[in-house]
Amino acid sequence: MHPARQRNELDLRGRTDGTSERFSDMDILDLRECAKSGMFYGGRAGKKEGIVYKGAHWIAKYPRSSRDLAGKHLPSYTSSPVAEYLGSHLYQMLGIPAHETALAYRGGKIVCACKDFTYPGKRLFMFSELKTEMDDDDDGFHDSPSDGASVYLTDVLLSIEKSETLSNIPGALDRFWDMFVVDALIKNPDRNNGNWGVLMDEDGRYSLAPVYDNGSSFFSKRNDSTFERRLGDSDAILQDAFGTNISVYLAIGDDGKPRHIHPFDYMRTTINADLDRAIERIASAFDLTAFENLVDSVPREAYGWRVLSEPARESHIELVKARYEKGLLPLADAIARRRASAQ
């Protein structure tokens, strides 16, 4: 642990139920005896198991094996459970509803236990499903408007505007831009159209689903030796904070070809009032000390398994700090100056 930082109790604000909890070093839940719920969950990021914990339905998300992943020097398993936990709690700390998560032990692995926010009586509709209601005769789209997989940013924004369902849900566009900014802060490159959506209750009323699927954040496929090697290199820190930080969303480049957006470059060069407000919201709400305490509350080991190594711990803090201090704060200052000069 960095000598300047000590483990303190952590105030986890912004929980979806409006309550708050305080933690020091967290307990890793023992879910070995939990019965299966009989529920099944989709996705491609590793094993998911429906279980019953304290009378409620939860999802045990296991780390994904790296055997079928591209890249060199990968760990045997990703650190996606820790990434899911940290990313979801950071969203909550910012006051953005996110699914309830806890680190746990089950099936011989450290997993992320995620409370099933659809149980009981709700159904999740992913944004990819909402897009299928779009009229393919609508103009202004790169891909077919009803293509649920299209991640051209202009298509996504136009779909939010034109979707009959989303246009009737307060705060839908704000939620999208909040996720865009926070995902840049935690380096989540996988906010695809299946990783956010809306809930429908038994009376057919719609509301925004809490933020979920944050397991690709925080370089979850990186091994400890790479974390350690790059920590001592200031250029590598900046490269990891910004250079390799790309979004799932596409834009057309100067050569006419689609390119993945670099979110901080996009935020710096784009004037969009809704995006500007999201930048200011997140920059104002983010508490670096609280984030450090969150990361420090995760134990190094539990049940004989590594949970969070010291190099990974320090890297998570240093990279988020760099993105906040050298990315978000300058962006928020530039927005304030631009607003002042326009008055």
UniProtKB/TrEMBL annotation:
Alphabetic keyword roster: Kinase, Transferase
GO molecular function: kinase activity
Domain HipA-like C-terminal: 54-222
Domain of life: Bacteria
Record flagged with keyword Transferase: yes
Designated name of the protein: HipA-like C-terminal domain-containing protein
Organism: Collinsella tanakaei YIT 12063
